[in-house]
Design goal:
- By secondary structure, the chain is α/β, with parallel strands linked by helices.
- The protein contains ten helices and eleven strands.
- The longest helix has 23 residues.
Length: about 280
């Protein structure tokens, strides 16, 4: 039976650490970290995510603001808001909630955020720094996965890691982070041949496909660490990319869905915002 990597408990621990850092910063410098979130439209899932992020900020003592714009808002209007936030000293991090309405080009909008305020870690400058091994704002979900591996004391160096999914949000940056820790990394995707056999060779298997319960026991090496990044709804139940009940007896460690990677993604947003605030105070 696999041991559970409890993302909720670990995220709570991270929030406590950030709260203590916020109190020190306020006492020493008279400021607190600030996060601004831009939400366009009324997507119910996005509204829940933004509300949770605002609550997280309140728990750790951050200043936060939400700019909620109508669905039909033009790109120019959004860019004006971003430019204003870029020049607002009390705002350390700027996050544009995805997905954006179809008429908007997310790349041009995200690229307008100054790299040191890009707490989602998606600006090309931050991606380039990650690729070249320089200090950067790393994307929150991969950063959360790495923190989870660290929390169980797992020695990544020399291990075989397989990442299923090649998105710019998760798969690609996570592969870079694992390489930086001297793992041997294989990236897989929808056109990979012999996928179950490749996955079954992994010491660390990360599923980030968005396909519910795709990864079953045939994909998993005995004793492997299995990190499930996916989240889908099946009826009234949330599930991940991993068929948990079929894998839990074979894996050595496993993350649940919900309560695994999701809470850590939000926690790493706080970590990145604190990192940006530290840049502000030097």
């Amino acid at each position: 039976m696999a041991k559970i990597i409890d993302g909720k408990a670990l995220a709570k621990q991270v929030r406590e650490e950030i709260k203590a850092e916020t109190e020190k910063m306020e006492a020493k410098h008279g400021i607190v970290p600030g996060l601004a979130v831009i939400l366009v439209g009324n997507d119910p899932g996005s509204e829940v995510y933004v509300r949770n992020k605002k609550n997280d900020c309140e728990k750790v003592g951050f200043y936060s603001e939400v700019i909620h714009l109508p669905e039909e808002t033009s790109a120019d209007t959004i860019l004006e808001h971003i430019k204003k936030l870029n020049n607002t000293d009390t705002i350390d991090g700027i996050l544009v909630q995805m997905p954006l309405p179809g008429h908007l080009d997310s790349s041009s909008i995200l690229n307008t955020i100054r790299p040191h305020k890009d707490v989602d870690g998606l600006h090309p400058v931050n991606m380039g720094r990650l690729l070249s091994g320089q200090p950067c704002m790393a994307p929150c979900t991969p950063k959360g996965v790495m923190r989870m591996l660290d929390s169980i004391g797992y020695e990544i160096e020399g291990k075989r890691a397989v990442v299923v999914g090649r998105s710019v949000l998760v798969g690609k940056p996570l592969a870079m982070m694992l390489l930086a820790k001297n793992a041997t990394v294989t990236m897989c995707h929808s056109r990979t041949q012999n996928l179950p056999q490749i996955c079954a060779e992994a010491d660390i298997l990360i599923a980030a496909t968005g396909r519910a319960q795709m990864i079953d026991e045939n994909y998993v090496k005995e004793g492997a660490v299995v990190i499930d990044v996916g989240i889908s709804r099946m009826g009234k139940k949330l599930t991940g990319d991993v068929a948990y009940d079929r894998v839990v007896d074979k894996a050595g460690w496993i993350t649940p869905v919900p309560g695994g990677v999701g809470p850590m993604t939000r926690a790493m947003l706080l970590v990145n915002t604190m990192q940006a605030a530290k840049l502000r105070v030097g």
